[in-house]
Write a structure and sequence with these properties.
Number of domains: 1
CATH topology: Jelly Rolls
Distance between the termini: 24 Å
CATH superfamily: Mitogen Ypm
Number of helices: 0
Number of strands: 9
Order of helices and strands: EEEEEEEEE
Helix content: under 10%
Length: about 100
């Protein structure tokens, strides 16, 4: 796995990634703390045909892993948080952007 979003708490980070047919992407939240806190979460969005981002899922304390297996343009949004955490992924063609 590769770091998709670095472990941080003081910045909101958004990463876009394009997925093609036959290339599923696994994402996993991680922290150097003993465990994730219930307030830690990451939104997963998909761009529709009108170029509008729609929320399709969430990574969080009780659901820290997701597998995307449909082609499309995805965005992962990590807000500022009280706990430092990040997201690992099998995706390798991204450029993270802090907002």
């Amino acid at each position: 796995m590769e770091v998709l979003i670095p472990e941080t708490k003081n910045a909101q980070v958004s990463v876009e990634m394009e997925m093609v047919i036959g290339t599923p992407i696994t994402m996993l939240m991680y922290t150097s703390d003993p465990e994730l806190t219930p307030l830690s979460s990451v939104d997963i969005e998909l761009k529709n045909a009108s170029d509008v981002w729609k929320k399709i899922g969430v990574l969080n304390y009780s659901n820290p892993v997701a597998v995307l297996d449909a082609p499309g343009m995805y965005r992962v949004n990590k807000p500022q948080s009280f706990q430092a955490f990040g997201v690992d992924s099998t995706y390798d063609g991204f450029v993270p952007e802090s907002e």
